[in-house]
Design goal:
Helix content: 40-55%
Distance between the termini: 44 Å
Shape: globular
Radius of gyration: 18 Å
Structural class: alpha/beta
Strand order of the largest sheet: 6-5-7-8-9
Number of strands: 11
Length: 288
Amino acid sequence: SMTNYDIEMWRYAKELKVRSDDPLIAFEHVRNSSALLQSVTIRTNEWGLRGGPVAPRDPNLRRILVLGGSITLGWGVPEDKVMTSRLEQMFAADDQHVEVLNGGVGNYNAVRYVERFFKRLEGLQPSDIVVHYFLRDAEDLDPGGGNFLLRHSEVAVTAWIAAHRLFDHNGERSLIDHYRAVYNPEAPGFKAMLSALDRLRDYAAANHIKVYFAMVPDVHNLVNYPFGFIHEMMRGVAERDHFIYVDLLPGLTGLEPEQLWAMPGDPHPNALGHQIMAQSLYPVLKGQ
């Protein structure tokens, strides 16, 4: 029925991902492929980006590459309604031909998407890079190959999900505690994230690329948002690296989960969320 979020994510990993030869990336998209996931077609091009073919770079035109995880990818959102597509449509409405490329890959953190840029996407020669940063992007992710049954058996993954739903009761308080541990300056994932962003900063400065840092909020509670401390911390990181900081929280503040979630049980922003994020980001991109 494509209405089970966990099973659809498992199918995504099985049908559109392949193990990478780079342990820092862990896995990447199958190129030139497509799959119907959660009732939405996700297609990849020759670069492993979501979307259609990419023409050779025209040096007279802007090419904006957006890096990020599954929110950037637009999980559960039709291709023409994902933030990157919306941005391209906004530029076109203002008579500007600007390419906006979607470099999102599900279950990526900052280390993975920066490493993938240098390993696979540098040849795109973007004029601008948007780091579409989510709270989880400082987590230390396991590069391991995973359990064989979970990779290949839907029955096994269903049982695994049921077991974790039974024993994992992570309320907002425990999630706050989790993120405070993630953003401890001595945490390995936090240090690796800073190092990855520093590497991107140095490359961008040497190649005259503008970098924008778009801070994506967690959309579980946008009425009494509990993670402002992370936004302020990452604002400082962006300013240190001379990235142009854009906080996407104000445009989404006050909305309820049922207005934004891709479907019940799936906290990825839906088409409305992607439209709001594009509207928040566009004036900054247009003005540069």
